[in-house]
C-alpha cells in the first residue's frame, strides 16, 4: 500500500475530479491538498483546460511549484524555476483549426474557433474573461458535436486522414494530434522527474472521464471517480488491487480515492459505514 512517505507523483484531472463539475469548487478536497503539501508530494494537474486557465488555478490551489499537463496532453508547462520551455505534442492549434475548417462542409459541429468569448462563456458557465483564457489554445480544439452518431464515426475517420484524433471530455469532444493523450504526457513527465531527481517514482492518477482513461492506464495506481452524467467507464481487469472506483463524485470522490490508497484504515471504516 502507498504512503505519504513514498516517492510518489500524483496526476489529477480537474473538472469532475478535483473540481466540482458545476461549481468548480474544490472545498471537499482541501484537507487532502493540505496533507499533500505538508508531505511535499507533487500534485500534477492533467486537464483539458488551457495553460492560461491552469496557471491561475495552480496559484489558487497552491500548486505553482509543479509542472502541469494542459489540453489533454497536447502541452506540458514547467514552473519558472525549472528553466525548461513548454513542450507541445502533436499538431499545433493553427493546423488543427485549418483542418477542421475544411470539414465543416461535411459535418455539423462548432468549435471554440467558431465562437466568440460570450458564446464559449455560455457553453461552459464561464465569465467572458474566463472564456478568453479557454480560447488561448496551443494544440487542441474543443467542439460541440451537432451531428448524429453515425456521422461521428465518419468524422473520426476524416480526422485520422489528417493525422488528428478525437477524444471525449466532460463537456466537449476534443480534436488533437495523433498519439496525443494525458497518458503519454504523464509518462514523458514521469521520466523527466526521474532523470531530474535521479530516483524512481511511483505514479497515482485520478480522473473521471473518457479522456482520462489513458492517464489512468499509464499510472501504477489509479482512481476512477464516479462521473456525474456519463456511463461507467471500464479499465483492464488486470489492474486488480491498483484501481479504485469511487462511490462519490467530484472532489469528494477524489478525496475518497486518496483515502483508499494513502489512508487505508480510514478507507475501511468509511466502507463499513
What does this structure look like?
With 273 residues, this protein is α/β, with parallel strands linked by helices. Helices cover 37% and strands 20% of the residues. It has helices spanning 30-38, 51-61, 93-103, 117-124, 128-134, 149-161, 182-197, 213-218, 250-262, 264-271; strands spanning 8-12, 43-45, 68-70, 75-77, 87-88, 109-111, 140-145, 164-168, 173-177, 202-207, 221-226, 243-249. It has a five-stranded parallel β-sheet with strand order 2-1-10-11-12. The chain has a four-stranded antiparallel β-sheet with strand order 6-7-9-8, covered by helices on one side. The radius of gyration is 18 Å and the shape is globular. The model is unreliable at 267-273 (pLDDT under 50). One of its GO terms (molecular function) is mannosyl-3-phosphoglycerate phosphatase activity. It holds the Pfam family Hydrolase_3. Its EC number is 3.1.3.70. Keywords: Hydrolase, Magnesium, Metal-binding.
How many DSSP H or I helices?
10
Shape: globular
Question: Low-confidence stretches at least 5 residues in length (pLDDT < 50)?
Answer: 267-273
How many strand elements?
12
Structural features:
273 residues, alpha/beta, Rossmann fold, Threonyl-tRNA Synthetase, Chain A, domain 2, 2 domains, 4-stranded antiparallel β-sheet, 37% helix, globular, disordered C terminus, metal-binding, HAD-SF-IIB-MPGP, Mannosyl-3-phosphoglycerate phosphatase-related protein
